[in-house]
Amino acid sequence: MKSLRIGIFIDDFFPKSGGVARSVELQISELVAAGHKVTLFAPKTFFIPPDNCDSEALEVWHIPGTESFLSSLRFGKKIAQRIAKQYTFDVIHSQNERGAMFLAAQVAKIQNVPQVHTFHSNYAGTHRTSPFMSGLNSLTYLQIAPLIMRRLRPERSGMKLYFPRKLSAPERVPLAKADWKNIARLAQYVDAFTSPADFVIEAIVDSSRGKLADRAHVVPNGVSEIFSKAERIRPNEEVIRFLSCGRLDPEKRVDVIIKAFQKLDRANTELYIVGSGSVEAGLKKLARKEIADETIKFLGHYNDVERIANEFANADVFVFSSYRFDTQGMVLAEAAASGTPILYCDDRLKIGVSPRNALLVHPSTTAMTEGMRFFVDDRERHAAMVIASKQIGTEVSSEIMEQHFVSVYMSVIDHKQSV
User: Fold this and answer.
1) Which of 217, 250, 255, 316 has its Cα between 20 and 30 A from that of 53?
2) Is 341 within 8 Å of 385 (Cβ atoms)?
3) Cα distance between residue 213 and residue 215, in whole Å
């Protein structure tokens, strides 16, 4: 296998932010281990250089104190020319639909190499939980971003695009449909695009009525071996520990988990919540009584992956209430690799879950409570699901993820050379 020179561009804080940064960190590790040369370009904000590859911290547009998804690499002709002169790439991979995508497009054009892009986010899934902010994003940024790409790569414009025809009910509102169409507008400007979720790829391809199918690839995010190696140090006692791990923002619906736990009202249970975000104060207010009696504990944001893995290993059930928002939900695969059974409510999420290790319920609070009650009452089934989770977790290998990405890279490089 030829050793590739790969430039990776990311807008999210590295390695501080959530699933996207963790997936990129793992992707880099596997690519380097396979003999490829990787250079990472990431925001200066909270940047910790990886020790296994070259990297450069870039200036960003970002309001201090705001979340990483509001951060954007600065892009422009001068910085692109400087990067293109300083580094040589065979392929460039952008990871967010902000400055990283635009700067990557500029560098790829100057060096005449292909650009691969990964769509990690489901913008259409935010309209139900954050209607004002998602609507503002739909009417401003998601309209502007394709225009920026058209200006950078005008030779690739002109494809006729439509609203996708097969969407879930929450995504059929006009602004959500427009989001999918605008994502497809972005996809037309890159040589190939990936997503960990098949429903994302299907919506984009359908928006082009099949014309983008040859550029589309489903590549699930892999899971670090840290999760499979994590060992439970907490005794198998009578108290059943439920765990939630992720951003505390409206679309993650952690309030549903708290309300479900409150309705469960079992003395031998506790709920641990890892993460931070915009609704953290409101969630703590909602859980005030349970915080006081220590049945609900907020642990804050963890930067250390090993600490996250340990929380999974010491939990009895991982609870995930995100509905019609996440593309993969890396935490599901991480929970599986840790041997932790899963309670979740989104049937579009397929990675790390099966009827053998996970219980799929309706997204309502009542259904979540019933799911919790199932795990508390049926300890024999729970024990079987622990074993199944470990087995299923081995199927979400970071090595397989690397092989998929290299296959995508080679296909676009070969196509570029043949044209």
Assistant:
1) 217
2) yes
3) 5
Q: Render the burial of 71-85: b for 16+ CB within 10 Å, e for the rest.
A: bbbebeeebbeebbe
- The span from the CA of 255 to the CA of 175, in Å, is 25
pLDDT at residue 9 in the model: 98
At 328 the pLDDT is 85
pLDDT of residue 134: 85
The CA distances from residue 360 to 33, 64, 261, 321, 323, in Å, are 36, 39, 17, 10, 11
Separation between Cα atoms, residue 63 and residue 256, nearest integer Å: 30
Q: Which two tokens stand for residue 83?
A: 């990067």
Are 341 and 318 spatial neighbours (Cβ–Cβ below 8 Å)?
A: yes
CA nearest 301: which of 244, 231, 229, 221? 244
Residue pointed to by tokens 């790390």 = 352
Q: Which residue has the tokens 């509001």?
A: 70
- Residue 290: other Cβ atoms inside 10 A: 16
pLDDT score at 201: 96
Report the DSSP beta bridge partners of residue 242.
Answer: 271, 317
Whether the CB-CB separation of 60 and 46 falls below 8 Å is answered with no
First to last CA, the chain: 22
Spell out the domain ranges in the chain.
5-222+398-418, 225-393
Beta bridge partner(s), residue 216: 193
Query: What residues have CB less than 8 Å from 113, skipping those under 6 apart?
Result: 89, 90, 91, 92, 413, 416
- In the predicted model, residues of the chain with pLDDT beneath 70 are 1, 17
pLDDT for residue 131: 82
- For residue 307, the number of C-alpha atoms closer than 13 Å in the C-beta half-sphere is 9
289-293-295 Cα angle (round to 5):
90
Task: Give domain 225-393's CATH number out of 3.40.630.30, 3.30.70.100, 3.40.50.2000, 2.60.40.10.
Answer: 3.40.50.2000
pLDDT of residue 102: 98
List the CATH code of the domain at 5-222+398-418: 3.40.50.2000
Structure-token pair, residue 109:
């054009």
The Cα 297–Cα 300 span in angstroms is 9
